[in-house]
Structures are given as C-alpha cells and as structure tokens.
Automatic annotation (TrEMBL):
The lineage of its organism: Bacteria, Bacillati, Actinomycetota, Actinomycetes, Kitasatosporales. ATP binds at residues 9-16, 86-89. Homotetramer. It catalyses: thymidine + ATP = dTMP + ADP + H(+). It comes from Streptomyces flavalbus. Its EC number is 2.7.1.21. One of its GO terms (molecular function) is thymidine kinase activity. The active site is at 87 (proton acceptor). This is Thymidine kinase. InterPro entries: P-loop_NTPase, Thymidine_kinase. SUPFAM superfamilies: Glucocorticoid receptor-like (DNA-binding domain) (SSF57716), P-loop containing nucleoside triphosphate hydrolases (SSF52540). It is found in: Cytoplasm.
C-alpha cells in the first residue's frame, strides 16, 4: 500500500542526503520520481545535501497545489512513480493535505523530509500537519551532535555566533555559518541556556568562570 512517510530530525542529520539516496535507488531501478523542494541551500529548483550531492527539483511556491500539479503532469503523459518532498517544514498545512491526497487518490508513495521544530522549539505548521497525517514518522538515526558532544535535539538560530529567540520563523541559512544569520544544532540543555559553541568558548576564556581568582 502506498504511504505518506515523514522523515524528521534536526538540521545536519542527513535528511536531504537520504532523500537523494532514495531518488538514486529508485531511478536505478527504472522508476521516475517527482521531486519537490522549497528554499534549498543550493538555490531555487534544487535538492542538495551538505555532502555536495545535488539534483534538480520543482520549487514549491506559496499557494501551489501539489496534487493538481501531479494530476496535470500525469494527464500530459508525464510519469511519476513516487514523490519526494524535501524541506517539508516550509509547506503550508493545506499542501501537506495535498500530499496525503496524492497517496490516497493517485496511489503514489510520498516521502517527506523536514525539520520538526523551529529555532524557538515550536512546531513548523507543515511538520505539525505531517505528524498528524503521515502513515509513518521516521526519526533519522544519524545523530547530529551538540558542541558538547551530546545528541542534538534542537535547532538554534545565531547571529554572530550568539543564539537568538525572536524573528521570522523562516529565514534561510545553514549550519556553522559565520555570517549574519546562521544555525547551530544544540542539545536541550544548551538550547535552554542559549549557549552556542561560540558563547561557550567565550565563557571558558572569561576569568569570571574560573574556580579561583587568577594569581
């Protein structure tokens, strides 16, 4: 039976790499997939991983009906044996409903990949709807690590290395950036304390945290 599967995890845990692997495995068997994405780091109409792999994709726009797009593609003689939707957290809830309809009415497997929560530890609307509708939710087993070595469970937005908790929910960036806006994965403890790798290094160098006063 066709399924809607949601592969979730933090940033830097290999979601896009797995999406590209699924595409490779199925295309190698002669299957044709429809690949959707939104706001990929490689630019519009691309699905890329941090390992350097990249492929073309259909860029999802605001208000785009994904079910209607697939129906139109198939009615014009196009082929789609499965669907991949990367960066699914950026989709509107109604677009997730459309992906579920692709499974139910067109009989196609849909593999959605995305981050569950934003930099404030709040659910993305698209991810919330996927949790509500998916036949399966798979948490990726490639664990991203916090700077302290613990398992990273939260995404932090940083400006100049310092964590911020206010701003628009969607601001495109990447992990380990040193420019104005970047992202870092943290364990819950350090996310709660707003302690990034940069601020942790600064604290270590500060005499205020030494156990005894400097001689």
């Amino acid at each position: 039976m066709p399924e809607l599967v949601f592969f979730s995890g933090t940033m830097d845990c290999g979601k896009s790499t797995l999406a590209l692997q699924i595409e490779h495995n199925r295309s190698a068997r002669g299957l044709a997939g429809m690949i959707f994405t939104r706001d990929d780091r490689a630019g519009e109409g691309k699905l890329s991983s941090r390992l350097g792999l990249v492929t073309d994709a259909v860029e999802i726009e605001d208000g785009m009906d994904l079910y209607a797009y697939l129906v139109d593609h198939l009615s014009q003689g196009g082929r789609a044996d499965y669907v991949i939707a990367d960066e699914a957290q950026f989709l509107a809830p109604e677009q997730i409903d459309q992906l579920a309809r692709v499974v139910d009415d067109l009989g196609l497997d849909v593999y959605a990949f995305g981050i569950t929560t934003d930099f404030r530890s709040k659910l993305f609307p698209g991810s919330q709807r996927l949790v509500e509708l998916a036949d399966r939710v798979e948490v990726l087993q490639v664990e991203a690590l916090c700077w302290c070595g613990a398992r990273a469970t939260h995404n932090a937005r940083t400006i100049g290395g310092e964590m911020v908790v206010e701003g628009a929910q969607v601001v495109v960036g990447d992990v380990n950036q040193s420019d104005a806006v970047g992202y870092e994965v943290l364990c819950r403890r350090h996310h709660r304390r707003r302690m990034t790798a940069a601020t942790a290094r600064a604290a270590t160098l500060s005499p205020d945290v030494l156990p005894v006063p400097p001689g």
